[in-house]
Amino acid sequence: MRTKVSDQSVVRSRAQGFSAAARQVFGRGFGPGFWIAAGWLLVVALSAIFADVLPVRDPLDPVISNRLNGPLTTNILGADGLGRDMLSRLVHGARVSVVIALTAVTIGMVIGGTLGILAGYFRGHFERGLMAVLDVILAFPWLVLLLALVAFIGQSLMAISVAIGFLWIPAYARVARANTLSVVQREYVLAARAMGAGTLRILLREVLPNVILPVLAYGLVAMGLVIIVESALAFLGLSVEAPQPTWGGMISEGKRHLATAVHVALVPSITMFLTVLSLNYVGDRLRSRFDVRESNL
Amino acid sequence: MTDANQHEPLLLRVTGLTVRLNSSHGLVHAVEDVSFSLARGQTLGIVGESGSGKSVMARSLMGLLPRRSIAFGSGSILFHTDNAQEQDLAQMPDKLMRHLRGPAMAMVFQDPMTALNPVLRLSVQLTEPLRQHLGLDRQQARSRAIELLAAVGIPDAAGRIDQYPHQLSGGMRQRVVIAIALACNPALLIADEPTTALDVTVQKQILDLLARLQREHNMAMILITHDLGVVASRADYIAVMYAGRIVEYAPARTLFTSMQHPYTEALFKSIPRINDPSHTRLQAIPGRPPQLINAAVGCAFAPRCQYVQPRCRQQTPPVVEVPDAREHRHACFYPISPGLNREEGDD
Q1: How far B106 CA lies from chain A's nearest CA (Å)?
Q2: Mean pLDDT of chain A
Q3: Confidence at B31, pLDDT banded by 50, 70, 90
């Protein structure tokens, strides 16, 4: 009996500990807006993952009789200029957007984050040199740089992801560096050194876990921007090659029918708008909790 | 200088330690010509106001000052390791020094709120040094960590070990900080104002805990504080620091019975006394401690000293031994010795 009671109290205290920890991390809830936005992102992510098994039509199958049919007619969200199902194309286009967003942000995060942490920790010539290079990249017109990169490495999904990811290295390096600068001044880093911890251990155990949260939170905002950049490329016909559906490509196609069938451009535009808005909203809420502004250093 | 104790073997001997740091305002004379020695199992209390160089001195002993901020450093820090070898920590490269931090010497920091990493579980923070220095595997380190937590008086150590620092109270956190410092059984523990950030009731518990652990491990301790009352009953020797210098050094009992330096006296008088009648005015030391930027001429305490003489402003008083009192040193031209008339002191 006794043990049972104490077991329960342990379980309860664990649970309380968890919710207390969650409150500490997430504060007093985010409000309904946050959860609606998060829900939309979940829908987009699930569509991307399960595009092939969802009960939608073939995104590449042109049904001439459905050409430019509006929403809620033969097709739920209407059909495009070739009579292809818009919903299906959105779902499959989500896959491209999500893959590029994830890959590009991951590339920027890993490379930029690593460089930023090293710069913030070691300072000196390495930091100055790196920051100078990053400033040059930041100052370069990103679309021109992107066009050059795509021309150089090709138009596959991976190539596009890598090219956009490269653009994100400077931003991430700056975020990681700023956070590292504040973390290395904390006493626990000194305490770790006082216990004989080496540089690698301090970087991995003390700095990284404290820097990674703001860097991750920044990731959602970055993904929103990546989606826009990808659609800009697609609009210029430089993203993943047709007939693979992408949101940017759909908007680009829709501009030919703007006068007669607005929905062809409008539906993917709204989808993208909602997705990017949700990413920004969720990302901003998370970031405001974790980010350390340079002015606070 | 080898005056620490005849019975216990000598552990640490610091001679002429001087540290000057770069700052945006100029050269900071943080530690000037500090000498002392410490035997195993003994406690040295270092007392001084904020900014008197206590913490910089402690960090320089551990080799924790950032290399690029040190403008000038001299003196020797002789440390006797277990095999009775004497090593000069001041000359030791950081690579070797690292292996001493933890097993040979460890440090307890002032603020337990910031001395623990907020995003790592206690288990991680406790087992890291055990695995690194003692080569324990994950399981061994974990059970040792639980023992350590229990040893510093944390109830339900096995349950607490997987918690995060924010789930503990300030006193508990300081106990954890102490447990981490003691993980590798150091011969020397430097406690840098270990109770300043804690409630008064918790302060005594932590100091008692440190005293008990010190006895159990025969550990030498440098107890840094700004409160003369804290070290009065707990230190074997007391060094009073002012403006980076040790202005008075004596066995604790001797210091309180025959203090020589006016600063020591002023510090002593500024402790509130329980027996004083209500509304007794506390005798604060007038003025503020000096900025340590660029060298000052004369005794650093002269501007605040109530016994100041013209000579004090022109020459820096050297450290001298008190006649007839072993191990009692001070740096004052006109010490407060019984029988000496101050008015006649000036010549």
Answers
A1: 6
A2: 84
A3: very high
Query: Which residue, among B101, B119, B132, would best test binding to A if mutated, counting the most A CBs under 10 Å from its CB?
Result: B119
pLDDT value of position A249: 87
The full DSSP string for A15-41 is HHHHHHHHHHHH-S---HHHHHHHHHH
Q: Do A17 and B167 touch (CB under 8 A)?
A: yes
A205·B177 Cβ contact <8 A: no
* Token duo for residue B133: 């220095």
Residue from the list A21, A190, A201 with its beta carbon closest to the beta carbon of B164 = A21
Residue of B nearest to A209 (CA): B119
pLDDT of B277-331, one tens digit each?
888 888 888 888 887 777 678 888 988 888 889 999 988 899 888 887 778 999 9
Judging contacts by C-beta atoms under 8 Å, the chain A residues touching residue B145 are none
Q: How many other C-beta atoms lie within 10 A of the C-beta of residue B338?
A: 6
List chain A domain ranges. 76-294
Neighbour-count burial of B222, counting CB atoms closer than 10 A to its CB (0-12 exposed, 13-18 middle, 19+ buried): buried
Q: How far apart are CA A251 and CA A258, in angstroms?
A: 10
Tokens of A158: 């991976």
Q: Name the amino acid, one letter, at B249.
A: Y
* B328 vs A65, more confident: B328
Q: How many residues appear in chain A?
A: 297
How do residues A101-128 score in pLDDT, each as one tens digit? 999 999 999 999 999 999 999 988 999 9
* pLDDT tens by residue, B249-268: 999 988 888 889 999 988 88
Collect all residues of chain A within an 8 Å Cβ-Cβ radius of residue B159. 10
Tell me how far apart the alpha carbons of residues A266 and A270 are, in angstroms, rounded to a whole number.
6
Give the pLDDT score at A295.
33
> Over 90: is that where the pLDDT of B86 sits?
no
User: Is A76-294 a CATH 1.10.3720.10 domain?
Assistant: yes
Token code pair at residue B310: 């013209």
pTM score, whole prediction: 0.79
Q: Which domains does chain B have, with CATH numbers?
A: 10-104+186-330 (3.40.50.300)
Selected for mutation to probe chain B from A127, A185, A195, A206 (highest B CB count within 10 Å) is A195
Bond from prior residue into A243 cis (ω within 30 degrees of 0): yes
Which residues of chain A are at the B interface, by a Cβ-Cβ cutoff of 8 Å? 10, 17, 20-21, 24, 124, 186-188, 190-198, 201, 205-206, 209-210, 213
Helix (H) / strand (E) element for B224: namely strand B220-225
The answer to whether A215 and A169 have CB atoms below 8 angstroms apart is no
Measured distance CA(A273)–CA(A271) in Å, rounded:
5
